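--- STAGE predict ---
source: upstream dedup step, 1 unique chain passed
mode: sequence only
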Amino acid sequence: MADILVRIPKAEEDHFWEDTPVTNISWWTLSQKPRNLEAGEYIYFLQGSKVVAKALIGSIQEDELTCEQTGREWKGVHICWIARDLEKLEDPVEGPKLTRGFRYYEPD
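--- STAGE serialize ---
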């Protein structure tokens, strides 16, 4: 089992924090599935140099999804969680350097 860390692109920061209806599934798209990642593990989010949020992964899907808010179509591997379960960390911590993709992550 392994958690992962992804970086929120600066252009996506506002959209990332937008309220999502509580019945919706949110997801993060990667080009390929992390070998050691399974549902039940966590995805952590890096904004700037800080780890600012996490979510419990509910499923991993390999198909095309369309964002209900932007209409943008996403192809790849989707790391999915229940939108209301996104947890903003009260005390963001300094994270490792990450420019794109993902890295395995062990929170302190």
